[in-house]
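Forum > Structural Biology > Help requests

Title: Can anyone predict the 3D structure of Sulfurtransferase?

Hi all, first post here. I have the sequence for Sulfurtransferase but no way to get a structure on my laptop. I'd be grateful if someone could post the structure tokens.
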Amino acid sequence: MLISPAELALALASSTPPRLLDVRWALTKPNGADEHAEGHLPGAAYVDLDTELADIGEPTRGRHPLPSRDALEASARAWGLNDGDAVVVYDAGHGFGAARAWWLLRHAGVDVRILDGGYAAWVLAGLPVETGAVAPEPGSIGLGWDGMPVIEADDAAAWPARGLLLDARAGERFRGEIEPMDPVAGHIPGAVNAPTSENVGAGGTFLAAAELEARFAQLGVDGRSEVAVYCGSGVTAAHQIAALEIAGFTAALYPGSWSAWAHQGRPVETGE
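Reply #1:
Sure, ran it for you. Structure tokens for Sulfurtransferase below:
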């Protein structure tokens, strides 16, 4: 599910190179089109997370509800994807935006990997970049759906009684000390805090499988209990699911996450 810059460079030089998607995104600057134009991997199409990897709807659905299959298929065709294409997604470095694309494309049945360390790792390796906008030849891919487990709010409410519900937000948001985005601070009752930022090392690459396995074991992930993950709006939770998969575990995503939960007036816990 991960690919290193060196491995990607070899794949791009092969007779069947993967398609590249640039998903640069941050909570404070969601549109990364200008960074893409300033420099990107050769041939990479820019993907707008807010408009192409999410739907727009009522606040009770959260800030980044999942797009429909048809909407994602239209976007994937605009990125130039065809049936059978292998895809590599990347972002600026830590993988949060890329993981959302990885999760959605896996959900839709696409062969997709994350460039570990993203654009920063590619540049650090001294590999070529290009500038300007990329206008791919439209593709004709047909997407599937339901390839990844998904839960809704009622499932999340009941989940701690049957398994482990991980909250991937920063500790201060989980504890309810601050809430910069949503109307209520705190967390879903019974959830366990597991900040997504702790999935990566200083260079922005994922921790090794053994390190991630040990991290999640300390949080109660044992391979026997079912695991579900949420975050603020379902974006960084996808990164948590990727990290869990690297460690050998599967997990369900609550796409609405805290942004949906808080707007629905559901019960809230604060503190550890």
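The longest helix spans residues 96-107. The beta strands are 2-3, 19-22, 45-46, 86-90, 111-115, 163-167, 192-193, 226-230, 252-253.
Shout if anything looks off.
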